[in-house]
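Dear Dr. H.,

I hope your travels went smoothly. While you were away I took the liberty of generating a structure for the chain from your last submission, since the lab meeting agenda had it listed for discussion. I wanted you to have the full record in hand beforehand rather than looking at slides cold. The sequence, exactly as received, is reproduced here:
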Amino acid sequence: MTFRNAFSFFALIAMIGFTSCSEDEEPMVDDTKQNIELNISGLEDLGSDYAYEGWIIVDGAPVSTGTFTVDGAGNLSATSFEVEKTDAANATKFVVSIEPIPDSDPAPSAVKILGGDFNGNTTTLSTSDGAALSTDFTDATGKYILATPTDGGSDTNENSGVWFLDNSSGAAAVGLDLPTLPAGWEYEGWAVVDGTPVTTGKFTSVAGVDAEALYSGAADGPPFPGEDFLTNAPSGLTFPTDLAGKTVVISVEPVPDNSSAPFVLKPLVGPVPADATDHFAYDMNNNAAATNPTGTVTK
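The corresponding predicted structure, in token form, is as follows:
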């Protein structure tokens, strides 16, 4: 072996050895970062127009931890998010908001669904947190009657309308006892007819008409949320109908709302008796515990 060849051989061995040592070294770790871990259940798929976003509150200001989506089974697209270690250490609260896609605003939207204060390195999330909906809806109550007051006085098809009022005293009165919602949320009434949820209208006040009258007749209805199902039936349904044996629902909807179905929050549900009588006040069941999302966050 010539001197030149020997030099090349030993240089190659040295390079191999250097490469091997480099590959065995531990990867660089950024000790300025820390993971936030989410364990949340009960959220629903928002479709392609919206996503959930997590926020830690640091010195009173929101710091985004990142966005995530939820599939039809309720699984989060991501549960671990990297943030600055100093921000994590100083975080006092965690909040989950609903944001549009794309989102040009770096601040949280008004639509906040979950929140919780850190106790050490962990927080329990709920809708009742003051930064979210400020209530868990467990005190909500409701009554409804079946009637079709917008049909001009006809006494036919009286089981084809639902109105969220209480006439048990002999006069129509408020039938819903619901907490006032913060900005970014509103209530919506529904009748589930042969498996299809049909809106009765959106509202923020239980003592006034709702925002829609999509299926009612020409006459005025009572000054409460509700709807007659007399005209313009959605595809697959026929109006008038009979709501006996069906279900009525009050949901809590984000604003804006991109879905024609009830949102995950459904605090009141009323199974209509199979032998339901029109103009009789029926009680709704409180369903909040079954539909409120919950979760924990660890930093």
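Two observations you may find useful: The chain has two domains: 33-134, 141-291. The radius of gyration is 28 Å.

With kind regards,
E. W.
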